Amino acid sequence: xxxxxxxxxxxxxxxxxxxxxxxxxxxxxxxxxxxxxxxxxxxxxxxxxxxxxxxxxxxxxxxxxxxxxxxxxxxxxxxxxxxxxxxxxxxxxxxxxxxxxxxxxxxxxxxxxxxxxxxxxxxxxxxxxxxxxxxxxxxxxxxxx
Length: 145
Fold this sequence. Notes:
The longest helix is centred in the middle third of the chain and has 18 residues, at 78-95. This protein is α+β, with helices and mostly antiparallel strands. The N and C termini lie far apart (94 Å). It has helices at 12-18, 52-62, 67-74, 78-95, and strands at residues 97-102, 105-106, 133-134, 137-142. The mean pLDDT is 79. The chain has a two-stranded antiparallel sheet. It has a domain at 52-142: Orthogonal Bundle (Arc Repressor Mutant, subunit A).
């Protein structure tokens, strides 16, 4: 029995099937893992000479910011910022300062989360069930007002 003649160029998967490899998926070299996709490792934050809370304090003294903005400036996860802010609020109170919070609000209906105690961004609006929520903004106020 003579071997089948293959066309001059065929896709490597078709060639593998023609050679009787069966249904096994044989990846050509150009599709092998790591050849086409070489993901970069996430950037590691620069070594700190100050603690995370000290860095948060410096950022908030400079300008008001959301948890997301603080996380990008400090090179940490957004969900890790909230516990630090809660602790920072207690520390500031002892110094005679306070963490001022501009409340989150719904971009769909305008509902404001004035009574909310949590510093995290709400997931939904209780009035319209919308999910387009503007995150709360934080800043440091001098004085106990």
